[in-house]
Amino acid sequence: MARIRMIKPEFWDDEKLSQISRDARLTFVGMWNNADDYAVVKGHPAWLKNNIFPYDDLKLLEFQKWLLELENIGVIIAFCHNGEKFYYIKNFLKHQT
């Protein structure tokens, strides 16, 4: 279930985020809504894509590219648990309640 999350004004000034595409930034915000209170979100790309962009005709490979952009700048960390992929959102707990 999606949750209410805040976007602080500093988000738009973040130099790391300025290095990635606009769509990757929007994906990042969408991941916040789908993350639990411990900054963890299910990492199955098709599940994420369908939860963040349910009405968009979007190729899975394009969406996966945005996830990789986020991983490459270090704002999300992929990990596996019991054979299932997840993402940990760094600094999430500092900004979300």
Give a verbal description of the structure.
With 97 residues, the protein is α+β, with helices and mostly antiparallel strands. It has helices at 22-34, 45-52, 60-72, 92-95, and strands at residues 40-42, 76-81, 84-89. The protein has a 3-stranded antiparallel β-sheet, covered by helices on one side. A hairpin with a 2-residue loop joins strand 2 and strand 3 (84-89). The chain starts with 21 loop residues before the first helix and ends with a helix.
Nearest-angstrom radius of gyration?
13 Å
Strand neighbour order, sheet with most strands: 1-3-2
Overall morphology: globular
Alpha-beta classification? alpha+beta
Distance between the termini: 16 Å
The helix content, as a percent range, equals 25-40%
Beta percentage is 15-25%
Could you tell me the number of beta strands? Answer: 3
Number of helices: 4
List keywords for this structure.
single chain, about 100 residues, alpha+beta, three-stranded antiparallel beta sheet, 3 strands, globular
